[in-house]
């Protein structure tokens, strides 16, 4: 009875547990069989759905489209990687072709035969790389390397150099020796027996030379094509020669410390107080504030406006706390050479870099470093080619106003020109200036003294560094050519004055101004009629 009663009491609980278990199993079943969302997997159409076939086709098409796009993307990436790899391979190959020979050519005294063979192989490769046997594709019309032509007497050149002459007798010794050597080599080649013809060969001389052309590819060599008279009237002999350039070789590797290198800027002056005020603004900003390793020597001629000049100098000294200046006054007629010579010899300190400057010069702090880096006592003097400014009233005549001075100092053909005929601005150590003999003090007035000093340096064993610099400007000012000048000085002054105003195009616009205005007036009238 007790067991039966216990069983009866336990039965409802068992039924409850079974019901709960069945419900739990149903819930788990429903969760397991319910399709996942779009972000997890695509829902398959139900078996009894009327669109089972269309649903499966749509899913298959979508999957196929996804795979197709993925494949296209992979192919595109592979193609890009191949192109990049090919480009890198070509770059590596070119670098190997360019530098591997150079590295192998380094002279190995233990294996002189191998070094010589490598050098010859490199020189032959230069001929193949240069534009000798065939042309190369160029990006623009300005990328072509032009030829220059020559005869026995003259050279006709596009790059006129320091002489500024389009045709000239070669005045540079290296150029003259080069062309003579090439002609002699060509004559020798023509007279060399060919070993085939039994007839008495003709003997060629330099007088048979008609003309030649040559050009230099800076990293490859110089190509020469020479034409000689042939055996009959319309026949010619042509010789092609090539002077290959050797590999780049390291000559020097050194540290240069200019922290304590002082520059003494020497300025000769007479009157021109307003120009001196402008000069001191530039000197204060570039020389005192930015550079700081600088001394100023002013050599003043006469007494007119002297007090104003001294006042400008003293005000700059007080406001900038600048004490490194010297003022020298001479009671005599202005002479630029005399002023620079006196200023250079007045210095009593240690050997110093002298920068011979004028009051109408604008320089930057970068130029002062160039001045230091290109001078070396007993070895190098620096003759920078400065950029000369055109007349701003002509350049900016069509503008509402003339820009500030700093905005005008742009190196473009419309704003100025390289003053390659001027030798007045120069940097050298004081010791070299004294040893060379200084200026010729017999030259008075404007011009001539700078050329005389320049020639002294050229005739010495010092290396003259002549190069255009981007941080040295000659500011425009109206030039007065005095009657007291000698005929040669007056001619030089007038030539300088003519070149100082504007470019050929700008001067042409002034010459034809009336003609241009007439043309514009006619066009205006015709447009009104229509």
From TrEMBL:
<dbReference type="GO" id="GO:0047237">
    <property type="term" value="F:glucuronylgalactosylproteoglycan 4-beta-N-acetylgalactosaminyltransferase activity"/>
</dbReference>
<feature type="transmembrane region" description="Helical">
    <location>
        <begin position="7"/>
        <end position="32"/>
    </location>
</feature>
<dbReference type="GO" id="GO:0047238">
    <property type="term" value="F:glucuronosyl-N-acetylgalactosaminyl-proteoglycan 4-beta-N-acetylgalactosaminyltransferase activity"/>
</dbReference>
<keyword id="KW-1133">Transmembrane helix</keyword>
<feature type="coiled-coil region">
    <location>
        <begin position="71"/>
        <end position="98"/>
    </location>
</feature>
<protein>
    <recommendedName>
        <fullName>Hexosyltransferase</fullName>
        <ecNumber>2.4.1.-</ecNumber>
    </recommendedName>
</protein>
<keyword id="KW-0812">Transmembrane</keyword>
<dbReference type="GO" id="GO:0050650">
    <property type="term" value="P:chondroitin sulfate proteoglycan biosynthetic process"/>
</dbReference>
<comment type="similarity">
    <text>Belongs to the chondroitin N-acetylgalactosaminyltransferase family.</text>
</comment>
<keyword id="KW-0175">Coiled coil</keyword>
<dbReference type="GO" id="GO:0046872">
    <property type="term" value="F:metal ion binding"/>
</dbReference>
<keyword id="KW-0472">Membrane</keyword>
<keyword id="KW-0479">Metal-binding</keyword>
<dbReference type="Pfam" id="PF05679">
    <property type="entry name" value="CHGN"/>
</dbReference>
<dbReference type="GO" id="GO:0032580">
    <property type="term" value="C:Golgi cisterna membrane"/>
</dbReference>
<dbReference type="InterPro" id="IPR029044">
    <property type="entry name" value="Nucleotide-diphossugar_trans"/>
</dbReference>
<keyword id="KW-0808">Transferase</keyword>
<dbReference type="InterPro" id="IPR008428">
    <property type="entry name" value="Chond_GalNAc"/>
</dbReference>
<dbReference type="InterPro" id="IPR051227">
    <property type="entry name" value="CS_glycosyltransferase"/>
</dbReference>
<keyword id="KW-0333">Golgi apparatus</keyword>
<keyword id="KW-0735">Signal-anchor</keyword>
<keyword id="KW-0325">Glycoprotein</keyword>
